[in-house]
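Retro notes - structure team

What went well: the batch runner handled both jobs without manual restarts.
What didn't: labels got mixed up in the shared folder, which is why I'm recording both outputs here explicitly, each with its sequence directly above its tokens.

Job 1
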Amino acid sequence: MNAEALVFVPGNMLDASLFEFQRRHLEPALPVFTVPALRGSTVAEIASDILSSAPSRFALAGLSMGGIVALEIWRQASERISHMALFSTTPLPDTPRRRAIRDVQVARVRDGGLHEVLAESIDPHYLARRSRRDGVLADRVLQMGIGLGADAFIEQANALRSRPDSRDDLPSVQCPALVLCGTEDTVCPVDGHIDMWRALADADLAVLADCGHLPTIERPRAVLHHLQDLLERRT
């Protein structure tokens, strides 16, 4: 592979197990590091924290909020990034409507409603219809969030609501890149990924059928295949 190491960045209220399948298959070929969870009151703080313990040069893959953080990592240390994978994410800032929803959710979580808030987000928004049938994946995602706890939810919500607009930064991403999403992603729809792909200098686009917002666990082998192709590309 043409990457020295790979760093996975999970999404909002998701943990390192989100990338377990891909890590297990890639690790024999290169060092793989997975951020356990996103901690920091701003996207800039989260990115800085990740950079403080990341290898000197690495490929970067972020999903959802992890993609938002990945773009901030690029802004802070582009010279350290060899390849960039953006899964199920957006370069857009939070809308006023979404900020208002976050404020309500944070208030509910402070009052002990973490389980209910997470459950409402996961079903039906996170997973494709096929992935929701037996409830196994939905419960797996819920347990990730429960394990991280209320403080992490509040911290991540505040970081998301104040995140910057990254659209103007996309053309500056000159390394080989991959934009990947699911056809049934209602959180970050396909059209937004096509816009990102067009704005990036050297990117491939993958749109996975029967897949929602969490392709690394809904379509793990397909994600692995596209990620391997990215890591084989020369910088």
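Job 2
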Amino acid sequence: MGAGGHAQVMADALLRAAERDAVIAPVGYLDDDPSLIGQNFLGLPVLGALSDVNRIPHDAVIVAIGDNATRQRIFERLQSQGEHFAVARHPHTVVGAGVSIGPGSMICAGVVINPGSVIGANVILNTACTVDHHNRIGDHAHLAPGVHTGGDVTIGAGTLIGIGATVMPQRRVGAWCIVGAGSLVHADLPDNVMAIGIPAKVIRTHEKER
């Protein structure tokens, strides 16, 4: 679901996994941009709009859209329709013992997830981010490229941790937060805040985007 840049990254992950005999392989994209329909990206066609999902034979879907609120909305709508969700995992990842990964989540190239961590549903773990031991990453969250979290970290649902940010061990970042690129989270953050800097300081609160 989606045919933009992030969707193509996930298609590539699935194609690379299929080359290594993974049990799933992508058949194409769906996207609501009419100018994309009929185009091919990475050898896969844009088959129609999101609403066409019921007419196209498939076993599972992945909502490969970067914006967390949009991705949640589409995921929950498809879930209510009885869709099944695949996990997209690039073969060049490291996943430790006892790690749980929820349906529809996307694990990009270079990601490391250490033992005991729980990754929610519809999560993006983007390129070369690292999730240390016994983390809890909430549904619909996005850890951007190069993010590093220490042990026993909790990231709330729908939160975006920006490129290259670091979350120190045993810290909690609330739900639907935004942590700026390159920031250092040294203290817990409540829900619905934007925080930036070293150390990260709250610069504003916000309501979750609808």
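One thing worth noting from job 2: The longest strand covers residues 44-48.
We'll revisit the folder naming next retro.
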